[in-house]
Amino acid sequence: MKYLFISLIILPLGVFAQLHLQISGDFSVTFLPSTAAGRGATVNSTSTDNSGVSFGAELWFPGKSKKYNYGLYARYGRVFSTRLQGNFSGPAAGATPESNRIIFAQTKLQGFDFSQLGASAKIARFSSPRFDWSFQAGGGVSFIPSQRLHVAGSEFHSDKDRLQTPGSGYEIDSNGIRESASFVNSITLLDDMLLKVTPFLEIELNAESPGGIMAFLSAQIGLRPVVDPDLYQGNDLNGLLWFQIRTGAKGRLF
Amino acid sequence: MKHLFIRHLLAGLLLLPFLLKGQGFDAAYSIRYNTGLATSKIEPAANGFRQQLAHSTALELELRRSDHLGWLIGFYFEGIEIGKSSVFVGDAVEPFNMIHPYSSRLSSVYLRLGVQYNFRILEGDLSLGLLAGPGAVNYSRDWNVLNILVIEGNIIRDNPAFTTFTDESTATFRLQAAARLQYTYWFTPALAFSAGLEYNQSHYISGGIETLRGERYEIKDQEFFPGGAPGRVSPLIYNINYDRTTQMPDPSPVIHQFQFTLGLTCRLISL
Questions:
Q1: Which of A6, A23, A81, A186 to mutate to test the interface with B (most CBs of B within 10 A)?
Q2: DSSP string covering B197-243
Q3: How far, in whole angstroms, is CA A83 from its chain's centroid?
Q4: A2/chain B closest Cα distance in angstroms
């Protein structure tokens, strides 16, 4: 009955009777590039020990030794909050040498979802009385399609004593901030605060019980910057890489 | 202090099965993650349209003496994040003299008690659960505040930029009730994954202050004074001055939520 159920749910995999399928759930902390502590009267922390959760599925293939040393995985996760922010300024619409008008904007990354595809191999195994331990290494690609942003903006006229509601719309990208031709009274970020695709390396320590339940601790590091540094020029960007630590549980379906 | 309080509550929940030893219960802990599919608007409409995202995590203990009926106790931590990122068709000018001047967050923790009825289907349980319990809610608002040093009409600071001032409310108290339908698949006798749907609604009980506009979140720590308060190094540093009145959310409306839930369940040995 169990295998009938699994076959119905995961039909395409039913034909691969020799595979192991595992499901995982975990808590994570993701260290992202951060902008320097906020300027001005109040110093706001921009450290980025961002917590999150993720869920995944893994397929493990038997090698010649029948020990299931090679795996492929897919996972989906969410990072709840970040402190990555970018500040932008440029000439406001209608600025003249006589009228010094400047547009200021700030973008904040509030959180994001990510998915990962990767491969892993068990490179060492050892046993204790209660658990089978394994050490695995691999890598993959992170996709960040959904980023939750907050964008704020205002104009300043040096000859006025207060900030002004922008009379035009503005667009921001790695070339800076400029007037938009398509909308008014708003401001938007055309680029992503985090790049959509980032390759990474991952190592993992697994402890498996005889019943097929596993606890794991893993760490992954990005292989290229997860941000476009041009977007943060003048923002004292600290670091460029993605680093994530995860711990959770896995269970073998079959 | 707040985190210490929550840790004590969680430690108490983790120790509860040991206090019930000898009572003949089967005990199972679940860690849940819920993501909001639909959530009531938190910010006042007068402040303009904003995007919202709700998500929550929960630690829950189920105690069973029979195959079907389970008693639930758990802590439910929820965050509703509100911000604004881009242009919307028909976007109205907001009642501020800047665009999108703040982001905000409603943070909650609830103690929920409940009962669920489990139907055995294949290798898992289809569960219909009802939960309710009191909670404490805190509202915070991050203001994007621009600091510019101006002397005799000239901008002096080399790189003027926004900084963040956070206003935080005192706790208000609410009562939440929830109904949940989920399927829990046991792929070993001790470990299961679950997925389901939950509807919950939260009612205001007490807290906040009475103002001319009605009851609202009371600000405990206010770093920023909208409405034209002078800059901190007035008059040379200009913070954002508001021409019109900003509104805080009213905590009294019922908050409705429809959520998708995922969980990981670990069954303990019989107590």
A1: A186
A2: EEEEEEEEEE-SEEETTEEEPPEEE----TTTPPPTTTTTB-----S
A3: 13
A4: 6
pTM score, two decimals? Answer: 0.79
Interface A:B, Cβ pairs < 8 A? 176
Chain B residues whose beta carbon lies within 8 Å of the beta carbon of residue A191 = none
Q: Which of B41, B244, B99 is nearest to A150 (CA)?
A: B99
- Structure tokens of B78? 């929820």
Let me know: does A228 contact A193? Beta carbons within 8 Å: no
Dist. CA A154–CA A186, nearest whole Å = 10
The values of phi and psi at residue B234, to 5°, are -55, 145
* Reported ipTM: 0.71
What is the distance between the alpha carbons of residues A112 and A194, in angstroms, rounded to a whole number?
A: 9
What are B94-148's pLDDT values in tens digits?
A: 655 566 778 889 999 999 999 999 999 888 899 999 999 999 998 988 877 776 6
| Phi/psi of residue A47, nearest 5 degrees | -65, 150
